[in-house]
Amino acid sequence: MIRLGVNIDHVATVRQARGERFPEPLAAAHAAILGGADLITMHLREDRRHIQDRDVELVREALAVPLNLEMACTEAMVAFARRIRPDHVCLVPEKREEVTTEGGLDVAGQRDNVKATVDALRADGIVVSVFVDPDEQAMLAANDVGAEVVEIHTGRYANARGDAAVVHEFMAIRKAATTAHQLGLRVHAGHGLTYRNVWRVAALPEVEELNIGFALVARSLFVGLPAAVREMRDEMLRAREAARQDL
Ligand code: PXP
Predict the structure, then answer these.
(1) Can you tell me the distance from the alpha carbon of 59 to that of 40, in angstroms, rounded to the nearest whole number?
(2) Which atom of ligand 1 is nearest to the CA of 158?
(3) Cβ < 6 Å from ligand 1: which residues?
(4) Res 101: pLDDT
(5) Parent domain of 76
(6) Which regions in the chain score pLDDT beneath 50?
């Protein structure tokens, strides 16, 4: 089985664009669940450009499905997470000037800080993943800091143009997933996934969960969020089933 985590950040992006009270991320979370979302993902950025503290609090309080909080490795975010107690935390790098999370977390480069963050969150019973680029060193570093899960950054694959480049980037993801699995890490993936490119990644047997946001929110403008989520989930399950029958 493969799970779909629906990232609702961009519902808040629309709200913040007008400084309004709507659309509410909590309402979007309910709609996503109606469409079959297995969990809800939210990124509370340091600059609070989309999701606000209150959005996370409301979703945590109201929903029965697991909450996956994406956050930077800072003391303030650790304190927030320990108060909210999401089921999962995904540690991501953050730069103020970026449009979205541009690369994976440099786990080896900030080993002590990442390890202290992982330790603190795990001590509170939170399952911690690190968002890393698809390369072997990153998998080893994730294992070294005690993360239980890696979320493999699929952005380079999603942005690749031309068959050769797409296959090259996909192979990197496949290899990283195998390495992570051999190390005993659980494997998630996400970033830039769409209805057109999700198939290959969803078919990888090591991948337990995909976190997808932008493509779902964009499609929801035309078909509504429950249908957008349902279509993506169906595509993922079809890919998985086709891969299983191929074995
Ligand atoms: N996973 C992580 C760790 C992310 O930071 C993001 C973007 O917030 C996503 C998944 C979802 O990416 P997208 O919005 O491109 O589907």
Answers:
(1) 8
(2) 15
(3) 7, 9, 43, 70, 90, 92, 100-101, 131, 151, 190-193, 211-215
(4) 67
(5) 3-246
(6) none
